[in-house]
């Protein structure tokens, strides 16, 4: 993080102190030394998120939690974050102590994620069925049973099982029990498809011996391990989401009038996510055995990244918010009564809904197409190293040229291209081409949201404004998108759902542009315009480009010209 609370003798509203820059004097002159801690923070924090975000669901599945129950847990997660984010923003705006809030969130997040990843399985006392898997139709013929028969004898028709054969193990299999006591796989096409590929068979009938260890939801709710995992995962997710928004608020506050370069700081998180993801996958493969997938290396990476980030934050002067709103709640109420801010918040909700659906069902859809796991990982790498960092870097210029609402329109169009492209996908390799465009969605939305919150907030309410928008994006919006998208996938299938959501995204793009035009026509002043050019600086410009105006120093913050990286 950037130094914010320097002694009074080192602060000057008209000049830029060179003291912090000497710390990184070995760097090229075109690198903005005072913004380097921002980049390091995002690099470490997002690298840690790569270890827990994609894997927290499969940890629950391995522990015996069925798909329906996991859906409820993942619906509660973003709704819990909705509560945490504004509370954290309020605490920051009232206490002015950003460093303390970030450190507390990091410690708590690490603790709860650690509990979730190390929680024992909830199906340790479940029933184990021995028999043969027949493909097709995906039926498991039971020849014997061992262990507890609580789920079977209770007449429950819904089980969650771990299916193991000689060559493969599936940790998430939903099944139902027939009247004669045999088991039918609800998602039997996936195990059967994998087995046929293994056996080099295309359409032939296949019978494979195996075991199925099951637990039912009725028994699951009485198992303390289930509640330990569920509560820890929910709190870990909510704290991580709040930490992400608080970090954005701190960076936005410290950048001051140079907020347009926010995307350049955030792109370093994208790069770290792309670099860390393959490493995490490799560590999981090394730590796992044939019959057990060990996800603990994911948490080790997360904890290590959090520790390094905490050391970074403690190594710089304490961050504070310099301005405090005298009438905090009145200022927030006036902000939320603005037509411009209300409309922007609504479109932020729509963007969060679309991204929430994509995050929940993209991998699901690709697996339905038979996409290999390494290829799914490669799509993430293309997103992280393709358009995403480029758009984060160019977000400064895009926002200056077209403004906030048009930037959202572009993001909606990009999402439509990805969703509609997925809906017509036949060749799994085509997903790589689709994700070249898809990688541009997140930076367009995220940078626009952060810059808008900072520019439109009243003094002393910036952190709350960032957190309110964040709660609509990956809180309420994400939950709504996951829920509606999940119901649609269940009714009409993933392919048609992607197509219809793509068409809806086109409509959202047109609506966003139309609302902006209406605001400009009906308001007394122009909305969504580039702020006035700051006063010329007495400091020379960057050696990497022509001199430019230097931003005024706001919120007791020291930043350099954004012509540097």
UniProtKB/TrEMBL annotation:
Record's bilayer topology term: Multi-pass membrane protein
Region (Disordered): 530-565
Span of domain Major facilitator superfamily associated: 38-500
Subcellular location: Membrane
Ranges annotated as spanning the membrane: 40-59, 65-88, 100-123, 226-246, 267-287, 299-321, 341-361, 373-393, 405-425, 431-453, 465-488, 500-519
A Pfam family reported for this protein in Swiss-Prot or TrEMBL: MFS_1_like
PANTHER family associated with the record: MAJOR FACILITATOR SUPERFAMILY DOMAIN-CONTAINING PROTEIN 6-LIKE (PTHR16172), SUGAR BABY, ISOFORM C (PTHR16172:SF30)
Family named by the database record: Belongs to the major facilitator superfamily. MFSD6 family.
Protein name (record): Major facilitator superfamily associated domain-containing protein
Organism of derivation: Rhipicephalus sanguineus (Brown dog tick)
């Amino acid at each position: 993080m950037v130094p914010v609370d320097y002694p009074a003798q080192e602060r000057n509203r008209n000049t830029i102190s060179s003291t912090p820059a000497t710390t990184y004097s070995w760097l090229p002159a075109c690198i903005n030394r005072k913004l380097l801690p921002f980049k390091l923070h995002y690099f470490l924090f997002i690298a840690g998120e790569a270890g827990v975000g994609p894997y927290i669901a499969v940890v629950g599945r391995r522990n015996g939690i069925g798909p329906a129950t996991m859906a409820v847990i993942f619906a509660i997660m973003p709704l819990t974050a909705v509560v945490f984010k504004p509370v954290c923003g309020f605490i920051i705006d009232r206490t002015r102590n950003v460093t303390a809030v970030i450190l507390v969130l990091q410690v708590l997040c690490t603790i709860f994620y650690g509990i979730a990843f190390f929680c024992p399985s909830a199906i340790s006392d479940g029933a184990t069925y021995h028999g043969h898997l027949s493909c097709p139709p995906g039926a498991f013929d039971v020849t014997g049973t061992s262990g507890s028969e609580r789920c079977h004898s209770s007449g429950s028709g819904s089980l969650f099982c771990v299916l193991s054969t000689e060559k493969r193990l599936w940790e998430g299999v939903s099944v139902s029990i027939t009247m004669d006591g045999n088991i039918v796989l609800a998602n039997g096409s996936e195990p059967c498809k994998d087995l046929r590929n293994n056996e080099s068979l295309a359409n032939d009938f296949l019978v494979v011996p195996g075991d199925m260890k099951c637990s039912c939801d009725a028994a699951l709710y009485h198992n303390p391990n289930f509640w330990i995992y569920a509560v820890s995962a929910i709190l870990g997710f909510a704290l991580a989401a709040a930490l992400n928004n608080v970090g954005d608020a701190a960076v936005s506050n410290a950048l001051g009038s140079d907020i347009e370069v926010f995307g350049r700081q955030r792109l370093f998180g994208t790069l770290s996510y792309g670099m860390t993801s393959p490493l995490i996958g490799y560590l999981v493969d090394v730590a796992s055995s044939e019959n057990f997938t060990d996800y603990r290396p994911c948490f080790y990476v997360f904890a290590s990244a959090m520790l390094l980030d905490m050391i970074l934050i403690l190594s710089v002067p304490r961050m504070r918010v310099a301005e405090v709103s005298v009438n905090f709640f009145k200022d927030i109420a006036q902000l939320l009564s603005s037509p411009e801010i209300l409309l922007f918040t609504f479109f932020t909700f729509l963007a969060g809904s679309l991204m929430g659906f994509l995050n929940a069902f993209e991998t699901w859809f690709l697996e339905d197409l038979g996409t290999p796991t390494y290829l799914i990982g490669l799509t993430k790498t293309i997103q992280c190293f393709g358009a995403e960092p480029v758009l984060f870097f160019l977000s400064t210029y895009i926002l200056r040229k077209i403004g906030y609402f048009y930037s959202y329109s572009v993001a909606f169009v990009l999402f439509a291209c990805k969703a509609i492209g997925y809906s017509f996908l036949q060749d799994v390799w085509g997903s790589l081409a689709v994700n070249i465009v898809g990688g541009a969605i997140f930076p367009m939305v995220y940078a626009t949201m952060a810059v808008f919150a900072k520019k439109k907030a009243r003094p002393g309410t910036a952190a709350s404004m960032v957190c309110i928008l964040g709660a609509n994006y990956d809180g309420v919006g994400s939950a709504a998108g996951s829920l509606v998208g999940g119901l649609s996938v269940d009714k009409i299938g993933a392919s048609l759902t992607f197509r219809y959501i793509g068409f809806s995204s086109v409509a959202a793009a047109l609506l966003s542009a139309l609302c902006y035009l209406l605001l400009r026509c009906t308001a007394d002043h122009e909305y969504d315009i580039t702020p006035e050019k700051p006063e010329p600086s007495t400091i020379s410009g960057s050696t990497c480009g022509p001199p430019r105006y230097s931003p005024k120093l706001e919120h007791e913050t020291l930043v350099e010209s954004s012509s540097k990286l």
